[in-house]
Amino acid sequence: MSSNYVQNIAVVGAGGTQGKFVAEELVKTGKHKVTAITRADSSGKIPDGVASKVVDYNDTSSLVEALRGQDVLIITMAVTAPKDTQQKLVDAAKEAGVKIVLPNEWGYDQDRNASFAKENLIGERIIQAREYVTSKGLPFIGICGGFWYEFSLGGGEVRYGFDIANRQFTRFDDGNIKLSTSTWEQVGRGTAALLSLKLNRDNENDKEPVISDYFNKSVCIESFNVSQNDMFESLKRVTGTTDADWKITTENSQERYFRGLGLLKEGNFAGFAIGLYTRAFYPDSAGTMPNTVNKTFNLPQEDLDECTKGAIEFAKTTKGY
């Protein structure tokens, strides 16, 4: 970094679900050179304006060479990626001289609620990844956007409890527990806004936020703080339906959570989604992130019903619609 701004940013997963929007928003700022780190067999489409470097994850020198000269490494990967992939990237980032790592998080702030982090099936992994980054002497910044709204609302009953195609709604408890949820675009905008700040303050009189304020912390972004019932009302408005048009059932959140764990033990991966999502709807409100950066970063307020329409369109692309 030759100035007080980060300029060169590498994105792993730039053709993927969240990474695509992060890369696109970084390009829109006009302040960064964005490079996608990709495998030779990757089928993801790299966004316009993004350079590409092909790597072999089994060849450390390949990773180091791709990351040399990069100021920031952003990691976005599916939960199905090999467990050691992130460690390989962090090791290479350290050797290549990368200054900041945004690890593969993109969910909830795991630091705020210890029991939530332990019980939500991904929290301990995220905390371990953070610890690994710091063990290498690198700062991390955890981008937390909660669950993706369209993906979760439109992704079937195992996520937010809605089977849109068949107009079925499973209400967890009374359906009034709220959580933070975000669109892919909002998380991308928030990440780009963060990395467009100055790295450090110019002097003691400089009171504007800077990137280093967020070292080894969570940066929480949201589109909406809503309950299942709020989502249901939006769905009814958008589809022109009433309660009578839906099959509505109720399930105790704790019983549902343990049912999910049981399915997972049997090898049914649907249990992972059931456990992961249901834990965020517990009465402890662990899925709400009160300390968002939306105002600080001047992020827009999105329209819930418009995003619900996006969830319906997403539902059409998933199995069972």
UniProtKB/TrEMBL annotation:
* Domain NmrA-like per the UniProt entry, residue ranges: 7-145
Claim: Oxidoreductase is one of the keywords in the record: yes
Pfam families, per database record: NmrA
The UniProt keywords, alphabetically, are:
NADP, Oxidoreductase
Q: Where is the signal peptide?
A: none
Q: Answer whether the UniProt record assigns the keyword Hydrolase to this protein.
A: no
- Cite a single GO MF annotation: oxidoreductase activity
What InterPro entries does the record point to?
A: NAD(P)-bd_dom_sf, NmrA-like, NmrA/Isoflavone_reductase-like
List the protein's name. Answer: NmrA-like domain-containing protein
Instruction: Provide the species name.
Output: Orbilia ellipsospora
